[in-house]
Design a protein that fits this description.
The protein is mainly α. The chain is built from 19 helices and 4 strands.
Length: 489
């Protein structure tokens, strides 16, 4: 009798062990591979909710496109045409036919910015100084009044043109250029003070960039220890995630068109504002542990910040301001690397390497940048499963396509303007875009987050059934074997 009991106990224990082992193996294999349909759902990423209603929301494809110049850029003829129009309209003010009003000041902005976009910022700076003197005359004490919101564009444009004019000389440590760059920084700081959220906070990161470069002029080691966001070179995790994703809100954002449009385009009521804060708190963050950067560059930022804020700023400055920049390319590489966007990250490191000559005037520092980028790319190549040659050829092909599209766009502008057509008129670009493939990349599923569905309760029943079946099978086998022994006895 004791022997039978022991055999039953042994069978139960053995059944538990076998069933448990099977469950563990199956679950391990299931978790190792990509989630299967029915085990997850894709939710819109929280960075698709812009900081301000009606503002620009980041799509990761935008990073890929800016790295490959896949955006339309006005050419020289377009800016010359606007410049001539502004001069004609300004003549009526200068002749006394019109009183100087907001339109007059906007035309001065256009005139100065046109000079900058034509590569002649030095000619635009006096125009903006004249505008500032009209808006805020210097007092008897030799000082200007405190910064005013109505002067925002003056501060922002004058600071930007001063930076463009003096940046190259400042990198070479020319004292006059360094002074000019500091003056430009002071004006952009005033622009941020009176309008901190303009252009999705772009000027905030202009300030950080100029502070970073000025600090690097005193301590060049900063350039090879951290990027201009304060993210240290070689960090394992460039973009730590924020709070857990608010799943229910993201599901509603995906499924409810009215809710989505309200959060994206506004108007947002007080409840919407709270929901936006919750959503944006779950965006992956950028933070710095570099004390030198925190003290001298990022002191005005509320660190850590959602990664989409600097990303949008760098994209905006690249496409609408100073053009391709190795510092922005490196920062975008770190952001994409931290997000697991390995393909975009590889291309960003490649672009930074290509632009190394603009990184700093010292060839040794330029080479350090290239060496670092190559090391980061080598790691990415292993996970991407592609060789450096393959990735580089694809990168160069896409970059050539982007530049060719920009050249075609600018040639079309020049041809149409030469034929007497006004580029601001409706339908000016219709013939150019007719039958043309979009230049922007398909965002695909890059701007989604994976939500693993809760375990189905019926699966518990299935596993219990599997256990019972295993136990009964073993018991049956034991009974058959015992009966066979009895028959052969």
């Amino acid at each position: 009798m004791v022997g039978v009991v022991m055999r039953v106990i042994l069978l139960i224990v053995l059944s538990v062990i076998i069933t448990g082992a099977v469950i563990l193996v199956v679950e391990h294999l299931r978790r190792q591979g990509p989630p299967k349909p029915g085990q997850y759902e894709l939710l819109p990423a929280p960075w698709l909710v812009p900081k301000q209603a009606g503002g620009t929301a980041l799509r990761l494809a935008m990073v890929h496109d800016v790295l490959h110049e896949r955006f339309h850029l006005h050419g020289e003829e377009w800016f010359n045409h606007r410049h001539q129009q502004a001069e004609r309209e300004l003549a009526a003010y200068d002749d006394g036919q019109k009183q100087k009003d907001d339109r007059y000041f906007a035309l001065l902005d256009d005139l100065a910015v046109d000079f900058d976009r034509l590569g002649r910022p030095a000619e635009g700076i006096p125009i903006l100084r004249r505008k500032l003197n009209l808006q805020q005359p210097v007092g008897a004490d030799g000082k200007r009044p405190a910064a005013e919101a109505r002067c925002y564009t003056t501060y922002a444009n004058l600071g930007t043109l001063l930076a463009h004019q003096h940046l190259k000389g400042a990198l070479a440590k020319d004292p006059a250029a360094l002074a000019g760059l500091r003056e430009g920084l002071a004006f952009i700081e005033q622009a941020v003070a009176v309008n901190p959220d303009a252009h999705f906070g772009r000027e905030r990161w202009q300030v950080v960039t100029l502070r970073y470069l000025l600090r690097a002029s005193e301590n060049p080691k900063l350039l090879t220890s951290s990027d201009l966001m304060g993210v240290e070179w070689g960090s394992d995790n460039h973009v730590p995630f924020g709070q857990a994703y608010p799943t229910a809100m993201l599901q509603q954002f995906r499924d409810d068109d009215v809710f989505r449009q309200r959060l994206v385009n506004g108007p947002r009521d007080h409840l919407d504002l709270e929901l936006v804060k919750r959503l944006r708190r779950s965006i992956p963050l950028v933070e710095s542990s570099n004390q030198e950067w925190i003290e001298h560059c990022g002191q005005d930022l509320s660190l850590p910040v959602p990664f989409d804020e600097p990303a949008l700023a760098f994209i905006g400055i690249w496409t609408l301001g100073s053009g391709a920049n190795p510092h922005f390319a490196l920062a975008l590489a770190h952001l994409m690397d931290g997000l697991g966007q390995r393909g975009i990250a590889w291309n960003a490191y490649e672009r930074a390497s290509e632009l190394a000559g603009k990184f700093w005037s010292d060839p040794a520092i330029q080479q350090e940048l290239i060496t670092y980028c190559r090391a980061q790319q080598a790691t990415l190549e292993m996970t991407l499963g592609q060789s450096a040659d393959t990735l580089r050829k694809q990168h160069q092909s896409e970059l050539a396509d982007g530049r060719a599209e920009q050249a075609a766009y600018q040639a079309y502008e020049a041809e149409q303007i030469g034929a007497g057509k006004d580029p601001t008129s409706a339908g000016f670009y219709d013939d150019f875009f007719r039958g043309r493939q979009p230049i922007a990349s398909d965002p695909g599923e890059a701007d989604t987050v994976v939500y693993k569905l809760p375990v189905n309760r019926w699966m518990v029943v299935v596993w219990m059934q599997a256990f019972i079946c295993t136990l009964m099978t073993l018991a049956l086998i034991s009974a058959v074997m015992r009966r066979r022994r009895e028959l052969t006895a």
